[in-house]
Design goal:
ten-stranded mixed sheet; 13 helices; 16 strands; binds pyridoxal-5'-phosphate
């Protein structure tokens, strides 16, 4: 063991049978220590430094975008992206009903209103046909803008999410957006490394966001990156994330900005992780293959799948539990797994049912509710060992009999 490497050795590790198996934890197996040490040795520890720039470039490259702007987390990235794209107060942002709450919160931060559209049943992403129905039946095109008939507000943007490592079906969504002059802000926070028809996520819309939170496929501890081909928006994002500073020396600010900068130390970890992204994707896909082949034949379990047009990272491997066939429901399975030291999690409370967003409109949300009741995400850490995954599989296969 080196002087700066306090990682446990194999002999320190508890036996596999008693070890807790977490849902999704970081896998720090590359240059993380070396790069963080470099920050400390060079005194570049704060919110500027070479690793921040390197991280921005690496993430932009992965997304095939011209520009990357780091932010302190994925939520801040979404907030900034909405501002950079010009979404403002009392405008509306169409987004999926089934997703983590951050995009809905980010819309409210800018004074805009989310409108929750259902997800499709096959891959659990924003449903393009319901989106089209909403735009055609519930909105009116007037004065070269789209207006929601019910609220009277202008619909300004679509915010599709690439959920669980799988890309959204972007082309029909883009077609709708282009026909109605809507900005497309892609929440790719969960899906760095995924592709749609061979196009990388993050660049499917006009501006995209990634998260480098600890549970993501690569992490900087916490962090986010905005990517876009739009140079003016990238400049605006950089300006807003750095307190809207107008002068490098004098403390002059023409606008209210945000301290959303990532530190060089965090970026150092992020750069080391980005170097391993392909390996992490490979491991996640291998985990998914093993779950799929072991669980697909279990009556009442339906593992997540990959659309023909998708390359998924399978960030969080998720199954649907049919109580009648499987014998117990998803929450009983969650408890049975917890009793064996295995961490599983349901998907997110659908946003139309969230008390935090009760004043927002929703449109024909049915699938999201069913998925919420039935889905369970299983341990999917990049470093998940085969014997631990076998323990998970064994516990699932036998849970309904206990
Ligand atoms: C869909 C989605 N959007 C946004 C975020 C926010 O990212 P962060 O946690 O880095 O703020 C997350 C999750 O973490 C997410 O899952």
């Amino acid at each position: 063991m080196s002087a700066i490497d306090p990682k446990p050795t194999a002999s320190d590790a508890p036996a596999a049978a008693e070890r807790a198996i977490p849902l999704s934890v970081p896998h720090l197996a590359g240059n993380e220590w070396r790069y963080v040490k470099e920050c400390l040795d060079t005194n570049w520890v704060s919110s500027a430094g070479p690793f921040v720039t390197r991280l921005e470039r690496l993430v932009a490259e992965r997304a095939g975008c011209a520009h990357g702007v780091a932010a302190v987390n994925g939520t801040a990235a979404l907030h900034t992206a909405l501002l950079a794209a010009g979404v403002g107060a009392d405008e509306e942002v169409l987004m999926p009903a089934l997703t983590f709450i951050a995009p809905a919160n980010a819309a409210r931060y800018v004074g805009a209103w989310p409108v929750f559209i259902d997800v499709e049943p096959a891959h659990w992403q924003l449903d393009p046909s319901k989106l089209a129905d909403f735009v055609e039946r519930e909105c009116v095109w007037k004065d070269r803008a789209l207006w929601n008939r019910t609220s009277g507000r202008r619909v300004r943007a679509v915010l599709p999410v690439d959920a669980l490592g799988h890309p959204v079906d972007a082309d029909p969504i883009l077609a709708i957006a282009r026909s109605r002059d809507l900005v497309v802000i892609e929440d790719a926070t969960e899906s760095l490394g995924a592709r749609y028809k061979n196009r990388p996520v993050g660049r499917l819309g006009d501006i995209g966001c990634f998260s480098l939170n600890g549970n993501k496929i690569v992490t900087s501890g916490g962090g986010g990156v905005i990517v876009t081909d739009n140079a003016a928006w990238a400049d605006r994002a950089r300006y807003l994330t750095t307190q809207a500073k107008d002068d490098p020396v004098e403390y002059r600010h023409a606008e209210v900005g945000f301290n959303y900068r990532l530190t060089n130390i965090q970026a150092a970890v992020g750069v080391a992780q980005l170097e391993q992204l392909d390996e992490h994707v490979r491991r996640k896909r291998r985990i998914a293959e093993r779950y799929t082949s072991a669980l697909a034949g279990v009556p009442g379990l339906r593992p997540m799948s990959e659309a023909p047009w998708a390359f998924s990272t399978f960030w969080l491997f998720t199954v649907l539990v049919d109580e009648r066939e499987y014998g117990i429901d998803s929450r009983a399975l969650l408890r049975a797994l917890a009793a064996s030291g295995i961490e599983a999690r349901p998907l997110w409370e659908p946003l139309h049912a969230s008390a935090a967003h009760r004043r927002s409109q929703s449109y024909r949300v049915e699938v999201a509710d069913a998925l919420y009741r039935r889905a369970l995400s299983l341990p999917s850490s990049v470093g998940l060992e085969e014997r631990d995954q076998e323990r998970v599989i064994h516990a699932i296969v036998h849970a309904q009999r206990t």
